[in-house]
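Reviewer has doubts. Consider these tokens.
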Amino acid sequence: LDVAYVQMEGAGRLRLPDGHVRTAQYAASNGRNFRSLSEILCERGLLPPERRSRREVRRFFRENPQLAAELLAENRRFVFFRLDDGPPLGALNRPLTPLVTVATDPSLLPLGSVLVLDAEIPGPPGQGMRRIRGPVLAQDVGAAIRGPRLDLYMGVGSAAEDAAERVKTQVSAYLLLSKNVTTAAR
């Protein structure tokens, strides 16, 4: 299941059998449309829509391992990776920065755009939500990121994964533009 999530995220940190940690960086995809595991489970009636979360998907597959191969195969999108020793990189080929990097739909918000974000995000475990206000940088994209949506990069590790799973909220985002937009757009 972890492999499916690395496929979905486009990058991930891998702990190898010898103990070394390497980064699987996005290299290419087969170009097929992405289908999330939670979407597949909900469509099949195996997961109620109100319980649609990464945690519930993991629970489902722990309890139903015999269905894993069949259901995982329904997402026909496949990502190819290259191994690297550095941090995860975004579509601008620059390191992702927790709470600064956002992934966007580049047809609506070009890569490299700077925004000011005002949002409530999950705090550390057991501490509820916290407000963040400040600049973010559109430096990544994703097959599932279409339309007026931002995905805030939360970092690596289980605490970041847990926080990212709980970020599902409307935000205020303000695009910063040059006074001379026509020159900046060239």
Q: What stands out?
A: Strands lie at 11-15, 21-29, 79-84, 101-103, 114-122, 129-140, 151-152, 172-176.
